[in-house]
Amino acid sequence: MRSSVIVFPGSNCDRDIAVALEKMQFKNQMIWHKETSLPKTDLIVIPGGFSYGDYLRSGAIAGKSLIIDEVIKLAKNGCLILGICNGFQILTETGLLKGTLLRNKNLKFINKDVNIKVLNNKTQFTSKYKLNQVLKINIAHNEGNYFTDSKHLQELRNDNLIAFKYCDKKGNTNLDSNPNGALDNIAGIFNSKKNILGMMPHPERMIDKLISNDDGVNLFSSLLN
Amino acid sequence: MAKLFQLNLKKNKLKFSVTVTLKKDVLDPQGKVVENTLMSMGMVNLKSIRQGKFFEIEVDENDQKKAEEKVKMMCEKLLVNLIIEDYKISKLI
């Protein structure tokens, strides 16, 4: 499986995701945002960080960079795209994923391990997880408060496009288990074809029991399947 | 010569302002904090505050309609996230 990680000025989780991908035996390449074409690839990862210092809106400037036209083209052809944290924000700015990420409700940058629940395990990203499995994954963001219009929210629910929801240890999704005010506790969503996943939590930080846990491993092994 | 150049420059320059505000239904936590702070400072008549963004844009164009079209395009393609924000263009010069 070949993967490409797009690097923007201000990306800071690009090397973490590269380590995770390589550990999982992906043949990974780093792609600078000024490139206009991508080498053959099965998975494109837009990593976390603060591309362009979050100027204008998080992900807005990166969402208009040169490489993005190519990413959009490949996405439409069914290439797998994973956007993590700032990558999720960038995907919403490109229009590949609907909705947007607002400032956290409590106005604070939140960096902590939270529980999330797998809502759909019948996708290429999540097949190795159990349905409703509760994971502990790190979040680190200032704008993670997912928002979308009511029509799209209905579409997300009806078509099973919500990938992960914030929950408590037991899997209950409620206001207390919602760290950032995200609509319906949404932590990650798919596009309608389910070849694009955007998520605020960082699975690449959870691949080694020695430093955290290995709850993120199954996301990558699902992709390898 | 310098004067003439300046005159020409002025002729081909139109200036607009763009105000970007969060849509009515979108929560504005920053505005809310500013509001609460002003209230606690004793501004009792304050009803509500919504925070937004302001851009000043100069366009090298002398046809106002064309220039406005350009500014509109800039707004919709980059400056504004139409899902959560509204914008208003006003002519300055």
Task: Write the topology of this structure.
The complex is a heterodimer of chains A (225) and B (93).
Chain A: E1 2-7, H1 14-23, E2 27-32, E3 43-46, H2 66-76, E4 80-84, H3 86-94, E5 100-102, E6 110-118, E7 134-141, E8 145-147, H4 150-158, E9 162-167, E10 186-190, E11 196-199, H5 217-224
Chain B: H1 2-11, E1 13-22, H2 29-40, E2 52-60, H3 64-79, E3 85-91
Antiparallel strand pairs in B: 1-2, 1-3
> Per the principal axes of the C-alpha atoms, what is the gross shape of chain B?
elongated
Strand content of chain B: 25-35%
Task: Please provide the ordered H/E string of secondary-structure elements of chain B.
Answer: HEHEHE
From the helix content, strand content and strand pairing of chain B, which structural class follows? alpha+beta
Distance between the termini of chain B: 24 Å
Rg of chain A is: 16 Å
How does the major sheet of chain B shape up? 3 strands, antiparallel
Count of β-strands of chain B: 3
The CATH class of chain B is identified as: Alpha Beta
**What percentage of amino acids of chain A are in beta strands?**
25-35%
Let me know the CATH homologous superfamily of chain A: Class I glutamine amidotransferase (GATase) domain
Features:
heterodimer, A: 225 residues, alpha/beta, globular, B: 93 residues, alpha+beta, Mth169, Chain: A, three-stranded antiparallel β-sheet, elongated
Characterize the structure shown.
The complex is a heterodimer of chains A (225) and B (93). Chain A is of the alpha/beta class. Chain A has one domain: 3-Layer(aba) Sandwich (Rossmann fold), CATH 3.40.50. In chain A, 21% of the residues lie in helices and 26% in strands. Chain A has helices at 14-23, 66-76, 86-94, 150-158, 217-224; strands at 2-7, 27-32, 43-46, 80-84, 100-102, 110-118, 134-141, 145-147, 162-167, 186-190, 196-199. A 9-stranded mixed beta sheet of chain A has the order 2-1-3-4-11-10-9-6-7, with helices on both faces. Chain A has a two-stranded antiparallel sheet with strand order 5-8. By secondary structure, chain B is an alpha+beta fold. Chain B has a single domain (2-91), classed as 2-Layer Sandwich (Mth169, Chain: A). Helix content of chain B is 41%, strand content 28%. Chain B has helices at residues 2-11, 29-40, 64-79; strands at residues 13-22, 52-60, 85-91. In chain B, strands 2-1-3 form a 3-stranded antiparallel beta sheet. The interface between A and B is medium-sized, with 19 and 11 residues.
